[in-house]
Fold this sequence. Notes:
GO terms for molecular function: 4 iron, 4 sulfur cluster binding; metal ion binding; phosphogluconate dehydratase activity. It comes from Aurantiacibacter luteus. One of its GO terms (biological process) is Entner-Doudoroff pathway through 6-phosphogluconate. Its EC number is 4.2.1.12. There is one protein chain. The chain is α/β, with parallel strands linked by helices and about 600 residues long. The protein folds into 3 domains: about 5-35 and about 65-185 and about 220-400, no CATH class; about 185-220, no CATH class; about 420-570, IlvD/EDD C-terminal domain-like (Glucose Oxidase, domain 1). The chain contains 23 helices and 14 strands. It has helices at about 5-20, 20-35, 45-50, 60-65, 90-100, 115-120, 125-140, 160-170, 190-200, 205-215, 230-240, 255-270, 280-285, 285-300, 305-315, 320-330, 345-350, 355-365, 455-465, 480-485, 495-500, 580-585, 595-600, and strands at about 70-75, 105-110, 150-155, 175, 385-390, 395-400, 420-425, 430-435, 445-455, 470-475, 505-510, 525-530, 545-550, 555. The chain has an 8-stranded mixed beta sheet. A hairpin with a 2-residue loop joins strand 5 (about 385-390) and strand 6. The longest helix has 17 residues, at about 20-35.
Amino acid sequence: xxxxxxxxxxxxxxxxxxxxxxxxxxxxxxxxxxxxxxxxxxxxxxxxxxxxxxxxxxxxxxxxxxxxxxxxxxxxxxxxxxxxxxxxxxxxxxxxxxxxxxxxxxxxxxxxxxxxxxxxxxxxxxxxxxxxxxxxxxxxxxxxxxxxxxxxxxxxxxxxxxxxxxxxxxxxxxxxxxxxxxxxxxxxxxxxxxxxxxxxxxxxxxxxxxxxxxxxxxxxxxxxxxxxxxxxxxxxxxxxxxxxxxxxxxxxxxxxxxxxxxxxxxxxxxxxxxxxxxxxxxxxxxxxxxxxxxxxxxxxxxxxxxxxxxxxxxxxxxxxxxxxxxxxxxxxxxxxxxxxxxxxxxxxxxxxxxxxxxxxxxxxxxxxxxxxxxxxxxxxxxxxxxxxxxxxxxxxxxxxxxxxxxxxxxxxxxxxxxxxxxxxxxxxxxxxxxxxxxxxxxxxxxxxxxxxxxxxxxxxxxxxxxxxxxxxxxxxxxxxxxxxxxxxxxxxxxxxxxxxxxxxxxxxxxxxxxxxxxxxxxxxxxxxxxxxxxxxxxxxxxxxxxxxxxxxxxxxxxxxxxxxxxxxxxxxxxxxxxxxxxxxxxxxxxxxxxxxxxxxxxxx
Length: 604
């Protein structure tokens, strides 16, 4: 194992230094919580009776305090394919707990919305703030002070970050994330993308498009493209918060069940009554957060995590920003290409060596911290550099060996590109993120007149009318956290992709999000400060020359903005529950800090 890369070491040291005070306050909090945690045996009999009344066959064990009681926070619903497998999990987890003298109770549930269902719809404006709601729901679930550990059942976009943020406020307890795995592969990603573009051009019918989409998203399990959901699973592995190798094993398999069983047994062993106490708040330290960022960069993961990582880190008293992410990107090579960055999906990625291969390469090159605490039996990341399998009825881990597909996984010494493909752009239009790993290098620089829009629907109308057939920078503003909750603008990808395929130089600039489905069109996203309240994007006018350059890290306009009056802030719209989130919009901080109302108002 190599010495730690100097850039990784320097960024870790900088994060540790700037987080010194906030991290100390956080550790003091969870130490107090640990010291003050009530002994259940001394609690009011009335309190205990309320807690045990529904426990059925576990009631005697709970009454007599026979072993640790594990609280499950679940995001089950059967509309969201990734979370539908959780339907039977409580029953199974209770059985696994009894095997080691423990008990399991479902502490509570959280909402779990699907960005795939709400893409282009008004419900998407609730998406980012659902993370705050999930964190608060997690806090409510764990507030009963009945638990010695946590099992967190979640996979998708805002759900894992929300669960982690909420659980970190109970960081004196051990915790393990329990994914359910990806659905089997369906229609090829290349075919799916082609039909989407044909539909955008009016050359495919709605029925043909729906058949194509159903061929891709077809059964329980996570969507198989490498978006935010699967990037979540990658990060939980690199932070040591999964049973090693749990990320991409499909639902309903014997291996999946064995990994779930191991998660219950491990969290029962990590509580304060045992000799291997590992509270979540100590596991999620500066090194674990840096590992998450390194993994994001090395695998070309979702741009949404440029927002989620700062928010998750803040919940543990750790301060990170896009400068940290961009500097790490300069040193971390891209070792994986998974759709939309490559042709194969996460099932192909897993079969080719998956997370075990990636983690082994990063550790071998000194690009990840090997000494995070984690939840594996041996502390540190070494167990995560292997892959799980079955040995009889039990789990066994084996060495991964070489990449099984050089078009998908490459060694750190011979990567797809030498940097991690997440670049910080800066200039007189603000700070933004650019996912260069998804864009051909020849398209990293676009300088053209802009056309300014306030909704993605306006862009679609202009495209259909033929008004965008030229070299153009499409600006979609008033899409930030305080304006409308910072929705994903993934519906822009097909029309902008068509323009690019027609030979035009095209780029997108927005204070909104584009997600892990960010594709081949160059995009400066998450622009901060946002347009609402007079941010630089509010000063742009149609025809201004805008430069987007990932080579030089530039986001600027040649127009003189200082004498201009900002475009008026749009009035917040109601309907689809958006009015219920007015408080979140009013209190939200900037995207670079995580776009959170809850963390901002808590002073974290």
